[in-house]
Amino acid sequence: MILVGFMGSGKSTVAKALGERLGLDVMELDAEIYALSGKTIPEIFAEEGEEGFRNYEYRVLSSACENDGIISTGGGIITHDDSYEMIRKTDRKVIFLNATFDSLYERISDDNSRPLASQPREHVKALYDSRIERYRNAADHEVDTACGLEDTVEAILNLTR
Ligand code: S3P
């Protein structure tokens, strides 16, 4: 299973809960990028730009897809054409975790570990709007996370059973 969705949609938390329920390993791509590059996300953005970050992201996605388990992606992964195509064409179930922009923004606006969230609100909203179509095209199912963690996990288990 692969979880996609905007920053703040709860991908990591949901992936962890699903991993526990299903007895599967969880691969957190942002953490894999740190392991691969030895740099934090803000460091990569500052030193190598967003493009450098997307290249690391594609590499860790490619290797994660060689193993079983649940893959929790970073919110911008679908902006990179090769990563997007890989997710769109995979045999794995792809779940798009979504919520209203207001609630997503509330969860990310104070977080300086996310370079792309540290911009004026309307820029972050434009980013969300520009990505929504690709999340939907890549995913088998869209799940609204407004109902909370337990219900979100149940909904995903019901959809993928
Ligand atoms: C990004 C989302 C982040 C992280 C990086 C870029 C984005 O992951 O990969 O800061 O472009 O939306 P989360 O979705 O886990 O915050």
Written account of the structure:
The chain has 161 residues and is an alpha/beta fold. The chain is built from 7 helices and 5 strands. The chain has a 5-stranded parallel β-sheet with strand order 2-3-1-4-5, sandwiched between helices. The longest helix has 24 residues, at 41-64. The mean pLDDT is 97. Shikimate-3-phosphate binds at residues 7, 11, 30, 41, 74-76, 114-116. Residues 7, 11, 30, 41, 74-76, 114-116 line the site of shikimate-3-phosphate.
Into which percentage range does the β-strand content fall?
5-15%
What ligand molecules are bound, each kind once? shikimate-3-phosphate
Low-confidence stretches are none
Rg from alpha-carbon coordinates: 15 Å
Strand elements, count: 5
List the quaternary state of the chains: single chain
Strand line-up of the largest beta sheet: 2-3-1-4-5
Structural class: alpha/beta
Helix-strand pattern, N to C? EHEHHEHEHHEH
Task: Provide the descriptors you would attach to this structure in a database record.
binds shikimate-3-phosphate; 57% helix; 5-stranded parallel sheet; alpha/beta
Concise structural overview:
With 161 residues, the chain is of the alpha/beta class. 57% of the residues lie in helices and 11% in strands.
Question: Topology, pairings included?
Answer:
Blueprint lengths: L1 E3 L6 H12 L3 E3 H9 L3 H24 L5 E3 L8 H9 L4 E5 L2 H8 L12 H18 L2 E4 L4 H12 L1
Parallel strand pairs: 1-3, 1-4, 2-3, 4-5
Helix pairs in contact: 1-7, 2-3
The chain binds shikimate-3-phosphate.
